[in-house]
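Regression test case RT-17, inverse folding.

Input:
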């Protein structure tokens, strides 16, 4: 980086380095090698010990004597028939198998196993997240207006039949491309506010389901900054084994937001 780099450039380089580190996590989203939905009949899954099934509330894994000790949860080996109860929509329970992790998840009342492998081909082949060239013109100021009472917004998911239930805490209004826009905001002012949105680039140069943009903490008058250069992909842009939400209908911008991350699986992304 040259001595003449601006603060905008410096912050951009730091942000991109953070995103690259996120993508390279040994057991992160790019390490996924499978997503296996469970039914009520015990079944074996290629490459995994045990026989797995689920009912309405729990996941069960039956471990044969010769497999004993291969699977561990919280450092304790699973033996005979173990009962696992992941939370709805929450991070999964992590069952360890050597260097791999079997993440036991619950989504819209259905249970699945998500397999993380630090030697996954997707992770090994990762070089960089394609991104539009940063441009300060895509940094705009908006105004956050909180709802009197937070409300739940339900969206679909990239997996058919699943739903996501988001806590919407307000709206953000801003001017972009000569018009006033308004989008629904999720999260809270303590942990952070963000939007999920699509635009005219979605499904073309950017991922079609949604991109995420974090907002700055609102000022006393509600002012926030939306830096669309920092619009990022959800995990489903990188892998077929995620269950990400799609953007709510209210957050579909009609213009092309040629800023932020592009679809890493599009050949023409640059």
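Golden output:
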């Amino acid at each position: 980086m040259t001595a003449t780099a601006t603060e905008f450039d410096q912050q951009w380089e730091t942000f991109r380095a953070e995103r690259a580190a996120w993508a390279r996590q040994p057991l992160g989203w790019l390490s996924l090698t499978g997503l296996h939905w469970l039914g009520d009949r015990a079944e074996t899954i290629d490459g995994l010990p045990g026989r797995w099934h689920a009912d309405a509330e729990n996941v069960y894994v039956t471990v044969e004597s010769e497999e004993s000790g291969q699977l561990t949860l919280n450092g304790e080996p699973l033996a005979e028939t173990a009962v696992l109860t992941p939370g709805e929509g929450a991070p999964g329970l992590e069952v360890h198998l050597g260097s791999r992790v079997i993440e036991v998840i619950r989504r819209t009342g259905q249970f699945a196993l998500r397999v993380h492998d630090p030697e996954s081909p997707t992770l090994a082949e990762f070089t960089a997240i394609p991104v539009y060239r940063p441009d300060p013109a895509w940094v705009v100021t908006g105004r956050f207006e909180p709802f009197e009472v937070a409300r739940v917004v339900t969206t679909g998911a990239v997996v058919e039949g699943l739903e996501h239930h988001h806590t919407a805490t307000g709206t953000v209004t801003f001017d972009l491309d000569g018009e006033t826009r308004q989008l629904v905001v999720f999260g809270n002012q303590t942990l952070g506010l963000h939007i999920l949105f699509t635009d005219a680039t979605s499904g073309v140069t950017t991922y079609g389901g949604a991109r995420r943009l974090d907002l700055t903490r609102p000022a006393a008058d509600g002012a926030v900054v939306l830096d669309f250069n920092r619009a990022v992909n959800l995990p489903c842009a990188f892998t077929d084994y995620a269950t990400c939400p799609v953007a709510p209908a209210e957050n579909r911008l009609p213009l092309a937001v040629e800023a932020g991350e592009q679809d890493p699986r599009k050949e023409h992304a640059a």
